[in-house]
Amino acid sequence: MKAYIFPGQAAQFEGMGKDLYDSSTTARDLLEQANQLLGFRITDVMFGGTMEDLKQTKVTQPAVFLHSIVKAILTGDAFQPNAVAGHSLGEFSALVAAKAMSFENGLMLVYKRALAMQKACEQQPSTMAAILGLEDEVIEHICAGITDEIVVPANYNCPGQLVISGTVRGIELAVAQLTAAGAKRAIVLEVGGAFHSPLMQPAQDELAAAIAETPIKAPICPIYQNVNATPERDPERIKQNLISQLTAPVRWTQTVQHMLRDGITEFVEVGGTGKVLQSFVKKVERNAITSAL
To answer: Residue 171: in which H helix or E strand, if any?
Structure first.
């Protein structure tokens, strides 16, 4: 059985989508529609912007979403997943690809999400760090022991790689303690804020109403959502999980494990460079079949 998986923020690259725009009328129409909906020419940044331009949250999230969705749509009738999942932002791409949400509504939700998250980032200095080579339980224990600052597990990417999120001081304390505990590497990331942490509560509050008002129907296949890593098809529960996602950790390791247990044997990454999620899957199960669309 085959699952299509969709990357999140940090999947951007210079020139993303230009080959699709130049070679396909369908892609060109969708991307021009996106320019109109957003009120600015995001394609100019996608095609000609630098990595610094692409790192702007208001650009990154809709750009990665568009790249994934255009690729999925161009697949046409060959897009026949047994399941879908997306890493953080990629969950919105997965829902649109699985026909639970319209292209237009998905794009505008992603853009509102990006603006709300940027606003939350500006309210308090915060950041994230990737912790490599340490068991999840050790990281969880050390984060829980830092009580005078906010620092929490944010992205369970794969065995041996967990990203933490919190205040700048909280991350500094955690990195020092995790390094002392035996982490192979503890890398503070160049991000604008503490995504998937309690510091995103203002963004969650702002986005909740928009998600609640967005029509969502049952997807054509189960979607494994970030907050619980389990398959879902009920529109109301999908909405609630989308709202919770902003302050809850991305349980990608657990998502892949559950998919494997449910019979998924092949994982197809849709969008971005096509490499990041494949590598995470291989670290969960090296015999899994992976490819990029």
So the answer is: helix 168-180
pTM for the whole structure:
0.94
| Structure tokens belonging to residue 160 | 């041996």
CA distance 102 to 87: 19
Cβ-proximal residues to 195 (8 Å cutoff; 6+ apart), any chain: 9, 88, 117, 128, 154, 165, 246
| C-alpha 202 chain-centroid distance | 19
Q: Is 249 helix (H, G, I), strand (E, B) or coil?
A: coil
E strand or H helix that includes residue 91: helix 90-97
Confidence class of residue 58 from pLDDT cuts 50, 70 and 90?
Answer: confident
The span from the first CA to the last CA of the chain, in angstroms, equals 16
Q: Which of 37, 201, 209 is nearest to 111 (CA)?
A: 37
265: alpha, beta or left? (left if phi > 0; alpha if psi -120 to 50): alpha
pLDDT tens for each residue of 125-181? 899 999 999 999 999 999 999 999 999 999 999 999 999 999 999 999 999 999 999
Helix crossing, 57-74 with 103-123: angle to 10°? 160
Where would I find the beta strands (DSSP E) of the chain? 2-6, 83-86, 126-132, 151-158, 161-167, 185-188, 223-224, 231-232, 266-269, 289-292
Q: Which residues are catalytic?
A: 88, 196
